[in-house]
Structure formats: structure tokens, C-alpha cells
Write a structure and sequence with these properties.
mainly alpha; 3-stranded antiparallel β-sheet; about 5% strand; Fat storage-inducing transmembrane protein 1 homolog; FITM1/2; membrane; transmembrane helix; transmembrane
């Protein structure tokens, strides 16, 4: 009898413990659900606002003009910025982690956004790959431009080694001008690694890739507002992963614009930065305003949002035609 009573008391105690654990878990789940709902509502509000701004005709038609004005007149800010600012240090964290891998950040985040948007709108692998090929073509353009510019800089520039001449003891003290010893058959990279001087014409590759990535991000993200409108009409909201990736792309766009402003203000280089911005603009113009508007028979991947839905197509084509006519 004592053994049975002890077993029943142990079973009752375990049941009470389980009920207590369930009660504690329910009390913890309710605040967690509230926080998740609050974050989801904030994410939905911010992404809806950003999609409305980036999808507006003002941004889509005139963003390249704003970017051109920033590249042209940004070096004027060098007269007001402080040379002791943390952004005047070329070894700053932002320059090391973002500027040296601009295309890597842009291709990963933009490619993820295009992938999720295509799969969310149309479950077609061939259509998704066609839209992703736009990012790949921009990458090929960037690597080709970088290789060509490197070859042109090596051909047009010369490498010098500064040498201090021996000063005559009998002559009065006077500032001695360092001599420059010419080194032939040196590339720009090897010359700078040897701590020598490189003189020649150059194009700012940093400004080129930042301008190209900014224009690419605006083009790819501009169709998200139409996707939201279609989902609202069909009573189908896009998932949180797609909204989160869109938000990351918008943050990345702000980072690129800030880095571009820092380069122009703290490290002005005329006309190398302006030439880089012009080449970035021409690359975007040739792809998004030229080749991507051709018929599919030419092997072009099409414009952002093309073929994903009838709603996007009917809303997008009049805006695109208006953009062509206006430009």
C-alpha cells in the first residue's frame, strides 16, 4: 500500500509540474507573439513606404540626374569638411568592409531580392533565371570595365622612385628638390606596392562601381510597389523574407550614397571621379535603357518585373515608354 501511494503521489507531482511548465510557457509565448507582431507591422509599414518612394515616377525618372549632380558638385564639400574627421581616414571600417567589395554586397542582396520576388510572383524557374541574368550581365560589364581601365592606366602612366640628392656642404642651406628616377615596365599596382610614385591619367573605379550599383538598385527595387499592389488586389501579402531583403537593399542604397558623398568630399580627385561616374551612367544607360528594352529574340533578359504578372506589365510599360520619350 505504501508503494502504491508513493507512486500515485509521484505521478500527481509530475502532472502538476507539467501544468506549471505549460502555464509558464503560455505566459512567455504571449509577449513573444506581441513582439513578433509589432516587428512585422513595423517592417510592413517601412517597406510599403520605401516601395512607394522608390516606385514613384520622380525617383525612377530623375534619380540618375540627382546622382549626376552629386558626382559633379560633391567635391565642393571639401572646402567645409574637416580633415580630422573619422571619415577622412582611408582605413575607416566603412571603406575597408564595404568599398572594397561593393559589387559583392550589391550582387548578393539584389540577386536575393530578384530571386524571392520572381518566385513569389511566378513559380517559374526559367523566368527566375532570366531575371537573375540581369545581375550577371552587370557583373560582366563591371569586371570588363575594371580590366580595361587597369590596362589603360598601366599604358598611360609612368612609375617614379623619389631620390634625395646629395647637398653640397659649402652651399647655403636651401630646400632640396627630390629627384625622380624613372622605372619602366612597371604596372600601377606593383609601383604603389613598392612605395613609389605613379603619375598618369586614371578613372576612379570606386565612383564607377558605386554609381552603377546605385542605379541598379533603384531599377530593381522600383517594381516592388507594383508587386505589393497586385498582392493587395489578390488578398495575398508578400512574406516577411521578401520584405526584409527589400529593406536590406534600401539600406545598402543609403550606404552607397553616403560612401559616394564621403569619397567626393574627403578624397576629391578631379576629373577621375567625374569620369568614373560618367562611365557608370553610360553602363546603366546601355543596359537598362538600351539592351534590356529589346525584344526577347535578341537574347535580352528583359526589364525588372517584366513577365512576372499581367498587373506589373500593364502598369510598367506606359511608365517605361514615358521614360524613353522624356529622356
Amino acid at each position: 500500500m505504501d508503494l502504491k501511494a508513493e507512486n500515485s503521489s509521484n505521478g500527481l507531482t509530475s502532472e502538476l509540474n507539467l501544468e506549471k511548465l505549460h502555464r509558464i510557457a503560455a505566459e512567455l509565448i504571449l509577449p513573444g507573439r506581441f513582439m513578433v507582431g509589432l516587428l512585422n507591422a513595423a517592417l510592413e509599414f517601412v517597406t510599403n513606404l520605401l516601395a512607394r518612394v522608390l516606385g514613384s515616377n520622380l525617383v525612377r525618372r530623375h534619380f540618375h540626374l540627382m546622382l549626376s549632380g552629386l558626382v559633379l558638385f560633391g567635391p565642393v564639400l571639401s572646402f567645409w569638411v574637416s580633415k580630422y574627421s573619422i571619415f577622412a581616414n582611408s582605413n575607416h571600417y566603412l571603406y575597408r568592409k564595404f568599398l572594397k567589395s561593393t559589387w559583392g554586397w550589391t550582387s548578393i542582396l539584389t540577386g536575393s531580392f530578384v530571386l524571392l520576388l520572381s518566385l513569389s510572383a511566378r513559380h517559374s524557374l526559367s523566368l527566375t533565371l532570366r531575371h537573375l541574368s540581369r545581375i550577371g550581365l552587370v557583373g560582366l560589364l563591371w569586371f570588363g570595365c575594371r580590366r580595361l581601365l587597369t590596362l589603360l592606366e598601366d599604358a598611360a602612366g609612368t612609375c617614379y622612385e623619389p631620390m634625395t640628392p646629395v647637398q653640397d656642404v659649402q652651399s647655403p642651406a636651401s630646400p632640396v628638390q627630390p629627384l625622380l628616377l624613372l622605372h619602366e615596365d612597371q604596372t600601377k599596382a606593383s609601383c604603389l606596392r613598392a612605395s613609389m610614385l605613379w603619375r598618369g591619367y586614371e578613372v576612379s573605379q570606386d565612383v564607377l562601381i558605386i554609381c552603377l550599383c546605385c542605379l541598379l538598385l533603384v531599377e530593381e527595387m522600383s517594381v516592388f510597389g507594383i508587386h505589393l499592389a497586385q498582392g493587395k488586389a489578390l488578398q495575398r501579402s508578400p512574406g516577411a523574407p521578401l520584405r526584409f531583403i527589400f529593406l536590406l537593399c534600401a539600406v545598402l542604397l543609403v550606404i552607397w550614397l553616403f560612401l559616394l558623398l564621403c569619397l567626393l568630399a574627403y578624397f576629391p580627385s578631379l576629373p577621375a571621379q567625374q569620369l568614373g561616374g560618367a562611365l557608370g551612367y553610360l553602363g546603366w544607360r546601355g543596359l537598362y535603357q538600351g539592351w534590356y528594352r529589346l525584344r526577347p529574340s535578341w537574347g535580352c533578359p528583359g526589364l525588372p518585373g517584366e513577365g512576372l504578372s499581367t498587373t506589373i506589365d500593364t502598369h510598367k510599360h506606359p511608365q517605361q515608354n514615358g521614360t524613353v520619350d522624356e529622356n
